[in-house]
Amino acid sequence: MPAVTDSTPLDTSTLPPYVLALKERVAYLPESQVARVIRAYEVGAVAHEGQARKSGEPYITHPVAVAGILAELGMDAETIIAAILHDTLEDTSLSRAELAGEFGETVAELVDGVTKLDKMSFSSRQEADAESFRKMLLAMARDLRVILIKLADRLHNMRTLGAKDAPSRRRIARETLEIYAPIAQRLGMNKFKAELQDLGFRALHPDRYRVISERIRAALGNRREAMGKIEAALSTRLTADHITAKVVGRIKSPWSIYSKMRNEHKSFAQLMDVYGFRVVVDSAMSCYMALGAVHGLYKPVDRRFKDFIAIPKANGYQSLHTVLLGPFGAPIEVQVRTAEMDSVAERGVAAHWAYKTDSGPANSAQARAREWLSSLADSQANTVSSSEFIENVKIDLFPDEVYLFTPRGDILALPRNATALDFAYAVHTDVGDHAVAARVDKKLVPLRTRLESGQLVEIITAPSAVPNPAWLESVVTGKARTAIRQYLKHLQHEDAVDFGHRMLDRALDALGTSLDAIPPAVLDRFLETSKLKRLEELLSDIALGNRIPHLVASQLVAARGKKSSEVQQATHAMEKIRITGAERGVLSFSNCCHPLPGDEIIGYLSSGKGIVVHRVECPNVVELRKSPERCVAIEWDRDVQGDYRAELRIEVINRPGVLATVAAAIAAANSNIENVEYVERDAAAATLLFALEVKNRKHLADVIRRVRRTGVVSGAYRYPL
């Protein structure tokens, strides 16, 4: 291979046709930059020499095709060059230093960002994909052009998917539909998104794609005359009102038809029974004038108008949307936008590329994409697991959004089904952590309330309020989920250290000593041998069941030099540890016996989970006692707060209204019903299993008494007994 630093220009007459085609496409660049692009091809061709694609073509045809896709978007020279060389670092002997020396640090950074990360070792393919995706998004956060190259790479791979085997086609198609098409949409690149979706749909469900495509063609053939008449009527009306506009008919894609049929449970006929048009004008003011003109021509459908110019979508998309009642009995969907808005809608972040240059400010799609990527960078800093991070990102890629107002008039875009709690975390993590309620359009609502576009949301906070695990069930945004999990992990660690301290103290006390009596040098030696950095790690490990407290105590005492006979004699004197039930993340209550305050209980150390609490009479305790080193002597504290789950088996006379009567009796005893199911049922009698929330054993006894007094119950008892 010739030295990369050799900058002798290549004789273009020897270039293959696909490179000459690229040269034509990048003609918008200065001549010197075009020469650099041709030089990149030369370097790439030598680096990839001898490599071929599955189709049998030379490998270099793929990166050149990717560069061609980006040239159609009018991208800068660095992006085009990086696209040509995007696989060289991974698949060839070309080094990063050589790349930077020949084409500059920017190109080397871009190629580095795009390079796949398969060389890293992972425990599973899924984890590898998640980690690669995470790194890709972080590279995106540094330079948006990385994802543009990656999307163009994926688009060309999808166009040439036929050479792959069937399982590979399905895997790549699913990944495209789940990840890459939504990213293209999030970046406002609707043209890319639409082609990725249709190619993915065709590869994943070829028969469905063929049937829907044929039906679309047939439907369009039947409606061509009607489409022409409506288009002419719109153009005539706009001209009469002195509005310069271009009117274009819109055709739905096979994927969008399929998605709506599946998600909205609509038939093909219902979805195709709509005429779509786009009106492109010269200014934002003309958009509103054009809207008035089309509303004057055909009557608008109530509540079907959306102004995305005043309130752009989260990806920077701007347009006016309206639905009209047409002359052929079918609705007409009209989008009105300027040529600039049309370009941004089609190309998103790639429209009028202005990357850190003096050519003007970034367009709305670029600004919003950077905002989103910046929030992703914050999220990944607080997320240890790659799989958790990718799950959060997938949530953020929901295509449907709600637009909400803060009390100061700022607009926040959140995914569909977002709650007031998501809104709180979108404002600021501290606001979310201390949220207690919300005012939506000045009405007080719970934090789990789902929000709708256009609402004014105000979050009420309290300094003492903290997140709780139930919040994870309410939120839909990645930011909220990450923040809540981060807080709970911190809490769990604090609780684990405190509880582990109590457990080790009890174990040492039973051996006639205490943690304070263990010399620091002995403790440090024990921690070093156990490969632990701090005492807190040891205490947390004990509470989470990863270490047995009395074994640790025995080892510490032995290391201090106390006789083993003393250790054996003292073991039986161990006191029970008192629990309040508030030891978050360290204690859990078993589902097999549902222990309540007031019950005699035993703890079992489960590795990684901490202490699982059982009733002493639980049938499973016999098996647990076979591992005495993991059994923990515990008892309820006098002052126990909170609600606990209990199950009640109730035998009733089977007649109308009996369920309501029993439920009313349970409610009258100040207990919440979580769930109810019929266990047995015939014409005369039925057995019901109620899952309830009660304060303690005494509260449950009160519930049972009230239920028995209803007169419709033949038996009521705690389950299991």
Automatic annotation (TrEMBL):
<dbReference type="InterPro" id="IPR006674">
    <property type="entry name" value="HD_domain"/>
</dbReference>
<dbReference type="InterPro" id="IPR004811">
    <property type="entry name" value="RelA/Spo_fam"/>
</dbReference>
<dbReference type="Pfam" id="PF13291">
    <property type="entry name" value="ACT_4"/>
</dbReference>
<dbReference type="Pfam" id="PF02824">
    <property type="entry name" value="TGS"/>
</dbReference>
<dbReference type="GO" id="GO:0015970">
    <property type="term" value="P:guanosine tetraphosphate biosynthetic process"/>
</dbReference>
<protein>
    <recommendedName>
        <fullName>guanosine-3',5'-bis(diphosphate) 3'-diphosphatase</fullName>
        <ecNumber>3.1.7.2</ecNumber>
    </recommendedName>
</protein>
<dbReference type="GO" id="GO:0008728">
    <property type="term" value="F:GTP diphosphokinase activity"/>
</dbReference>
<comment type="pathway">
    <text>Purine metabolism; ppGpp biosynthesis; ppGpp from GDP: step 1/1.</text>
</comment>
<dbReference type="InterPro" id="IPR045865">
    <property type="entry name" value="ACT-like_dom_sf"/>
</dbReference>
<dbReference type="InterPro" id="IPR004095">
    <property type="entry name" value="TGS"/>
</dbReference>
<dbReference type="InterPro" id="IPR012676">
    <property type="entry name" value="TGS-like"/>
</dbReference>
<feature type="domain" description="ACT">
    <location>
        <begin position="647"/>
        <end position="721"/>
    </location>
</feature>
<dbReference type="InterPro" id="IPR003607">
    <property type="entry name" value="HD/PDEase_dom"/>
</dbReference>
<dbReference type="InterPro" id="IPR002912">
    <property type="entry name" value="ACT_dom"/>
</dbReference>
<comment type="function">
    <text>In eubacteria ppGpp (guanosine 3'-diphosphate 5'-diphosphate) is a mediator of the stringent response that coordinates a variety of cellular activities in response to changes in nutritional abundance.</text>
</comment>
<dbReference type="Pfam" id="PF04607">
    <property type="entry name" value="RelA_SpoT"/>
</dbReference>
<dbReference type="GO" id="GO:0015949">
    <property type="term" value="P:nucleobase-containing small molecule interconversion"/>
</dbReference>
<dbReference type="Pfam" id="PF19296">
    <property type="entry name" value="RelA_AH_RIS"/>
</dbReference>
<dbReference type="InterPro" id="IPR033655">
    <property type="entry name" value="TGS_RelA/SpoT"/>
</dbReference>
<dbReference type="Pfam" id="PF13328">
    <property type="entry name" value="HD_4"/>
</dbReference>
<dbReference type="GO" id="GO:0042594">
    <property type="term" value="P:response to starvation"/>
</dbReference>
<dbReference type="InterPro" id="IPR043519">
    <property type="entry name" value="NT_sf"/>
</dbReference>
<feature type="domain" description="TGS">
    <location>
        <begin position="400"/>
        <end position="461"/>
    </location>
</feature>
<dbReference type="GO" id="GO:0005886">
    <property type="term" value="C:plasma membrane"/>
</dbReference>
<comment type="similarity">
    <text>Belongs to the relA/spoT family.</text>
</comment>
<dbReference type="InterPro" id="IPR012675">
    <property type="entry name" value="Beta-grasp_dom_sf"/>
</dbReference>
<dbReference type="GO" id="GO:0008893">
    <property type="term" value="F:guanosine-3',5'-bis(diphosphate) 3'-diphosphatase activity"/>
</dbReference>
<keyword id="KW-0378">Hydrolase</keyword>
<feature type="domain" description="HD">
    <location>
        <begin position="59"/>
        <end position="158"/>
    </location>
</feature>
<dbReference type="InterPro" id="IPR007685">
    <property type="entry name" value="RelA_SpoT"/>
</dbReference>
<dbReference type="InterPro" id="IPR045600">
    <property type="entry name" value="RelA/SpoT_AH_RIS"/>
</dbReference>
